[in-house]
Amino acid sequence: MPSIRPIVLAVIRRGTALLVFEAHDDVKGETYCRPLGGGIEFGEHSADALVREFREELDAEITVHALLGVLENVFTWRGRPGHEITFLYEAEFADESRYRREEMKILDDPATARWVELAEFRDGRRILYPRGLVEFLSPEQRS
């Protein structure tokens, strides 16, 4: 039986770019991007889950800032229904050298995180999930 999955994602910016990973849905034939983060475990606060996910995925420490909002995302991925409640936090790397890296290998996945200009999502050149995230992102810059 499908269930609702609570997740948390980080909005980490480098100037006008957002840190995302790229994935592909073979059934839809669609390539898309999503910020890094992951599932919230029972009893775990969403901000704590985000810190844990970055340790697991990038072996990186982050500082979690303001909760930007919560999105509900009902979707189909690889032909299967999905339903997520997504907590979106503004965050930043504790180690400033992370901002100088163009790519960062995700340790527990074959994907790689990279910086993508927000304009590419706003003008439709690239797809950003979850739906509605682009509207949460203002033109503010992070260096």
Descriptive overview:
This protein is of the alpha+beta class. The chain is built from three helices and nine strands. Strands 2, 3, 4, 8 and 9 form a five-stranded antiparallel sheet that branches. A four-stranded mixed sheet has the order 5-1-7-6, covered by helices on one side. The protein is globular, with a radius of gyration of 14 Å. It starts with a strand and ends in a 7-residue tail after the last helix.
Topology overview:
Elements: E1 5-11, E2 13-14, E3 17-25, E4 30-34, E5 37-39, H1 46-58, E6 62-77, E7 80-93, E8 103-105, E9 112-117, H2 118-122, H3 133-136
Parallel strand pairs: 1-7
Antiparallel strand pairs: 1-5, 2-3, 3-4, 3-9, 6-7, 8-9
Low-pLDDT stretches are: none
Helix content: 10-25%
Could you give the distance between the termini? Answer: 44 Å
SSE order in H/E notation?
EEEEEHEEEEHH
Sheet of most strands = 5 strands, antiparallel
Strand portion: over 45%
Radius of gyration: 14 Å
Q: What's the number of helices?
A: 3
Characteristics of this structure?
alpha+beta, four-stranded mixed β-sheet, 143 residues, five-stranded antiparallel β-sheet, 45% strand, 9 strands, globular
Tell me briefly what this model is.
The chain has three helices and nine strands. The chain is of the alpha+beta class and 143 residues long.
